[in-house]
Predict the 3D structure of the following.
Amino acid sequence: MADPIRWARYRWRRLVSAEGRDGSSSSSSSSSCDKCYNSSNMPGRHRIVIPCLGHFKEEYEKVSKLYMNNRIRTTKYTLFNFIPRNLFEQFHRAANLYFLFLVVLNWVPLVEAFQKEITMLPLVAVLTIIAVKDGLEDYSKYKLDKQINNLLTKVYSRKEKKYIEQCWKNVNVGDFIRLSCNEIIPAYIVLLYSTDPDGICHIETASLDGETNLKQRQVVRGYMEQISEIDPEKFSSRIECESPNNDLSRFRGFVEHSNKERVGLSRENLLLRGCTIRNTEAVVGIVVYAGHETKAMLNNNGPRYKRSKLEKRANIDVLWCVLLLILMCLIGALGHGIWLSSYSDLTPFNTPEPDGKSTPPVLAGFYMFWTMIILLQVLIPISLYVSIEVVKLGQIYLIQNDIDLYHEKTDSTIQCRTLNIAEDLGQIQYIFSDKTGTLTENKMVFRRCSIAGQEYCHEENAKRLDSYQEADSEDEDLTGALCGSLSHMPKQKVHSCRTVSGPLNSKSLNQLPGSALGGEDGVSNVSHSRHMAFSSPIETDVVPDAKLLEKFSQISYNVYAQLEETERESSLESVYITDFFLALAICNTVVVSAPNQPRQKLRLSSLGRTPIKSLEEIKQMFQRLSVRRLSTSPVPSTKESSSSDSPSTFVSKLSIFRVKLASPAMEAGTHMANETQDTEISQCAKVSLPEPLDRVDTAAGSEHCDAGSSLQQSMSKLCYEAESPDEAALVHAARAYKCTLQSRTPDQVTVDLAALGSVTFQLLHILPFDSVRKRMSVIVRHPLSNKVVVYTKGADSVIMDLLWTGPADDKSEMEQKKIKARTQKHLDDYARRGLRTLCIAKKVMSDAEYTEWLKSHFLAETSIDNKEELLLESTMKLESKLTLLGATGIEDRLQDGVPDTIEALRKAGIKIWMLTGDKQETAVNIAYACRLLEPDDKIFTLKSQSKDACVLLMNTILEDIQKSTYAKKNHSSKLTSVFPAPSTQAPEFSASLVVDGKTLEYVLLESLQSIFLELTERCRAVVCCRATPLQKSEVVKLVRNRLKVMTLAIGDGANDVSMIQMADTGVGLSGQEGMQAVMASDFAVSQFKHLSKLLLVHGHWCYTRLANMILYFFYKNVAYVNLLFWYQFFCGFSGTSMTDYWVLIFFNLLFTSVPPIIYGILDKDISAEILMQLPELYVTGQTSEAYSPPTFWITLLDAFYQSLVCFFVPYFTYHGSDIDIFSFGNPLNTAALFIILLHLLIESKTLTWIHIIVMIGSILFYFVFALTFGATCKTCNPPSNPYWIMEKHVTDPVFYLVCIITTCVALLPRYLFRVLQGALFPSPMLRAKHLDRLTPKEQREAIKKWKEDRIGKCSMGFQDTCTCSKSAEDASVRESADHSLYIPAAKTPFPTCPPGRHVSPRMLHKPVQDPLTSVGLLTL
Amino acid sequence: MKNKDNQSAQESNPRCPDSSAFKQQKLPAWKPKLTASTVLSSFFVIGLFCLLVGICLILSARSVNEIQIDYSDVCLNCSKLRESSSNWDKECNCFAHFTLQENMPGDIFMYYRLQNFYQNHRRYVLSRSDAQLLGQDVNIQNSYCAPFATYPNGTPMAPCGAIANSMFNDTVQLFYYVNSSTAIQVPLLKNGNSWWSDKNVKFRNPTSYNLSSAFAGTARPPYWQKPAYLLDEKDERNNGYINDDLIVWMRVSAFATFRNLYRRLSRTNQFADGLPAGNYTFHITYNFPVTKFQGKKQLVLSTITWSGGSNLFLGIAYTVSGAVIVLAGFVIAAIHLKRRKKKTYFQRHPK
């Protein structure tokens, strides 16, 4: 109720502050830089950053005041405003306001019911508890802020003319900051200088988004060329950029030099606060955003407030209670008026007002209304709200401590980011799941490729992967050893370096790098792989396809020789293969580093500047390649210093590589060597010699390998840090084919091409990947052909459309078409196998074309405002008319336990939708693999090109489904009539729907929504492919809003964020793709399989616990308050309380508050094991069985009954006696305490020592309190004096007798109900509860029985769990008889038993001994 | 086995939750089990217990001798006199005769019983000052006594408040006709009718050299005929605030119809065994008007037992609910047996 207010206020505050900020910055800009805005028609919301130096000083003073400094304060309160502000916040809760209103009301003398102070007590208690909680939270934030604010960094000081240490909080916009390696960035800084000669700086953004790979940042263009460090004194440019905003992925602006020359700024130039500088010695930059104006802070919206379904329901019932209260008060008011008017005269007991006047009955009745509201206030449970908070905290604590939700490999456990919707987990009806990284591991493994229409299936690689699968399931620790020693002998734990098996040397040798690492420094390897993304051995080790490797190794020498010549068939393929691998190696953003220092960028010290090795090295290399008869023609060129930007030298060098191979002979030789190696476990050094092909890896395999030059050593230890797992997989694949990416700098990429040696490509441009284009491109100058080549890699659907389609008559065109068609076939095949497909294409450009494009692209880059569109346009221009090289198939393996989880969730009655961006075939395949789709399912595909077609299609499908279900039903009913046995259980007809991305768009249109939903409701599973993030969230929204169901969205990547936020419950998977999904989620888990325990066990528990606790609270309050209400009938509706006020207040606050909280946290209706084994039990939560309107009203009725008993038994007992008012109240109170606590005992499913202690503690506390109060309080509580009453009563047998009979009679119906419920109509819950008590063996059998029962039920249509009527009994008898005919006796231990529909599982296993002692039906 | 794994995991992984039974929600728990044996035994045990207690209670309640004499009609003329407030100081006496058919042995308690007098009215209940009754010198202006706190001239009332003001002030004497002509007064005790704790702790007279000076500066409540320090002139220990009649009255009753202990029989001479059978007369000095609220006044002579007075309700309640519970037990047993039979039916026909 209060949250909308809170939210609105928050929005308002944000708005105000944003306006203020914008206003200030725009005014500043208009004053200082009118001209620039006029010249460049930009909206005037920019910020100007100028250093506080030199000639800017004056302007700086003016501008800087408007910008925030770097001090952050995330606390809500200060020491001074804590009390007022906290009270202000708290009184935004409707409940608190209500109680404040009551307190105020009690100060009105006319209606005062209690002492003024007493009414304040509950409110004060609640406010204090919450205030303490808020205060502690805020204090921890304050401490953290202080720590951050006092971090030190080096800021340039004008006075001292050097960088001095300053606290973060003293950093201002416009300051120059110098950071060294591994330092944390204090603010948003534009990078002006880096010690890196290429002007690059690497940052680690793990603290921001959790991504472990390094990001590159570039020095602003124009400053890159500087050799010496930038001198702040001489900095004379001004920086203009956007006003602070929260878009993390965008930064636009420009630097204007003193000569009015502008240089564009982009995200690439910005260092983000909180990130760490890596691999770079030192950087210098100027602060542009600081403190609260940084994007990260602007994005920090604080914790989210969600209200669970259960709480919403409870709020409705609170309103009912309000209504009830008003009704009761009205009765009181009317009664008082009538009672008063029955006396014509002033009576001695009708005490006049203090001023001596008496009130007329009507007015007195009016006053009485308010008095009664105060008196009966407890009906609105103030304690309920506090208790719910406490219980939720406890539940969350227990969820977070569940060891089953702990994932050892990542050392992460579940994170509950939203504290108050744990019970929603028990009511989920729809799950929307992402595919990649959620259902799958997101460990991309290169599986297959197709080059120039020729497929290479990599069978050996597949075998290797199978071995991982086994190894994975066997033991995780073994994998380290296994990845080295090959799959075939997993048990043979010989040191991997030497165990080589299989026919292919290449394969074995490719394992070596991994094994070497594992063998030499296994520990360090393991530890670093933990924080190195996408580099598990399963991903890095690729076994090349023999055929392809052969082809590739043959051609790499002579490809470029033939380039100039007329293209022949064979060479075309060769060119394709070479280009294909080059594209794999180059077309990415992978950063290369050495594994032993994972954060140290590998700078090929000798090679960085000289891409071609020195003559000596080449000679050495060739000598080692002695098996091959190389043409050892003298190398004409010794231009080691020639850099990549002088392509002419490359051409001249080509002649070196015109080598011929005597391949057949050599192949034989290698095979021989290999076999010998197999048998005799030889030294690695030996191995390396006869296997020149693989020298690189072998060399790495052993430190003793003499051949390993320093270069090769370092090469083997290359580590690739990729932004996406696909990229890493492709680079690793290329590496397996000796096309090794060696180093990458912003302007050049070095690739080691088998025997060709290192080749350096001049990197002209990178067009990074984005989800709109679904592709990325690199533009390089080919060192050999000296042409501009564009390599593009992207989704097949996109690339296929961009291919060059010329006239069909050309022969090469025909060839192209053929390749395209065949590749498409392969792609379809890959997709069917559930592989992720990528297409690789290239395009050769002339220099002129390139320069033209570059010009237009540069224009687009420097524009600030509609940069995105322009860039897109520009890239479109480039990425067209491509030549298809081939395609890759990457496998993304299913996560551990996904099929089981999905099956369990499905059995739990949850509908699962898969929303993925992948293509249809892949998605459907994964869906099959994870059992989302079953082989028996009838699958309908919704794929249409227009809206109308879509409607038509949906209608047809609907009809089809209806027909099928009808047919099935008919069929099955016929079947059951003939064979009414579960063995013939006709499987329910199940349909599944696959929706294509484009069709999804139509379906989401307003007019088609309802028919779509109708369709999906009839389907067991829905798979949406090619869905954009927005569509994902819209689908969730549609289902959530239209079907009014509880939804859960689970995903791991940034593209799932909107979906996660849209769903009622968002679950983030802390996988490989960073933290965005986790940040947006309510719960973050590390594995999909954890979902089943989270929902089936914790969700169920949290829901039933909280639901029962809320119901109990309502019961408790109504039962207790009604005692007061009934008394009104006997005191002239005058608002008298027969209980001492303190006891009245404490009764709720102290005596009966702890047991329900314990009950709410710890009660366990069914054990976790049973819940996991019988997911069907989850259904009770979905249908809100534990807390529905009927249960609420039944609870209230019970409360009314109990209060009636509790009041009238003592009333009639003491009627007419000389009992005084508070002595009458005492047994009432005591009996109520016993009733309320024992009621909880009846309702509790489990009792631990904690329960017992709390129960006994509560009762003891009550008596101790009452006795002490009674013994000490002579005048402390003037009107209602409890003096010595309890003392008197504890010696009075009648007191005990009254309490006992009252308790018995009050609880009898509920107890009887529970007993009869167990005996006559046991709910599945009760039956499951019973299973807990069995021995494990009995339990297994009982569960089996249960499941059979379920199946049987399916065939019969839904039948209630227990049938009592005679006919039903007969039916079941008949059925059981028939049933036994069809089930062989051997299969079930009790073949004669009916499917347990009305018989407890236990009964089936224990012969009856004695009607009383045997565990009969009542046990349930 | 798993625990061990977990422990070893914990050492290397600090974030791993520990596997204590509490955190894993595996605390050993007693699951209340509604088995046939427990349910049926609980029903029968409780039911039989209730029946037993109920019978005891009924027997005990029936052993109480009680006689109740309504004198609101007998003293109609007096009540009419009292209706007019101008006659407040005129004394009015009346007599109520009754006959005891049997001896009333044991301790005899004499109660006055009022009907329709809502002593539990909220403002009435509040209208007192416990501090004043404790003998403390308090400013009763701040208490809940108003409008019965002070007189218009500022003199505080002692005791203040509506409760004290409306104190029951009929005087009743009991006469026993030894024979048809001679009546002797039955000796009745004024003392010991209130709770010991009230008499000795909760009510105290203000300290002074004598009682009248202690009450100096205060005035009697408006309805009273004499000030508080003259409530029992004969007994210093029953005078002022610690007067038993006042104390008993100040313990406000829970219901509109109630009785308050007035006197106890002093078991001396021929009354040593209680009241003998015969004719008796209540000699009533009528002061307390009840016609305004359609009230009735009765006098009650009663013995008491451990279970209280003559109220049979508790006994009946126990008996009835005991019977119901036993019956329910039988019904459950019947259901249980029926179900059990069916089960055996299935087991007897294996195929």
In short: Chain B is about 30% helix and 15% strand. Chain B touches chain A through 105 residues (CB under 8 Å). The longest helix of chain B spans residues 313-348.
